[in-house]
Design brief:
By secondary structure, the chain is mostly helical. The protein has eight helices and three strands, in the order αββααααβααα. A hairpin with a 3-residue loop joins strand 1 (13-16) and strand 2 (20-22).
Amino acid sequence: VAVVSYCVQSHRYNIVENFGCSGSPWMDVYAILGLHGSPVLLGAISFVYGAIAIYNFIAQRRRFQVVLQQNSSLNTSRFVRLIGVAGVNIVISLLFAIRETVLTSHSVYPTVSWDYIHYDFDLVFTYDSSFLLGDPQAWIELNLSRWLPCVASFIYFAFFGMHEDMLSYYTYVWARLSQALLRTKERIFGQPL
């Protein structure tokens, strides 16, 4: 994807005030297929595998209980979390990949030569944030590209960082840190707290 993004990059990048850098692809057929095709393809593959996993889990729940009891590293709660991540992945990854592809495919440029696309390649366009007031779709796109990775991180943490094993580990780490801090304060101030 990095090679394809360089091949269809019309200039270095854009800078949008209060948002930062953004890419500058020349949206021709190759850019649509190369940049947006792989997320749609991977989202479709994960959709199929996730749907199969959820279907098999629901259809053969009793057999899963026996398998999960035999495997000590995988218990029911971990497996249900994995199924939950598969369900969330189905909804988020495929839908947003298709949405992004449809929105960008409305303005497809003609495919031209390498020299034409990369002419004056070191150019950097700067935009103030006032242009976003007139284009709410651009504002939504910039915010989605900024916040979707954060939302995905919180979802992943909610599934795997908030179960019983991790909560007990957090308690253990907190106890160790507080003991170390108290010992440090005793050494600095010379008296027990």
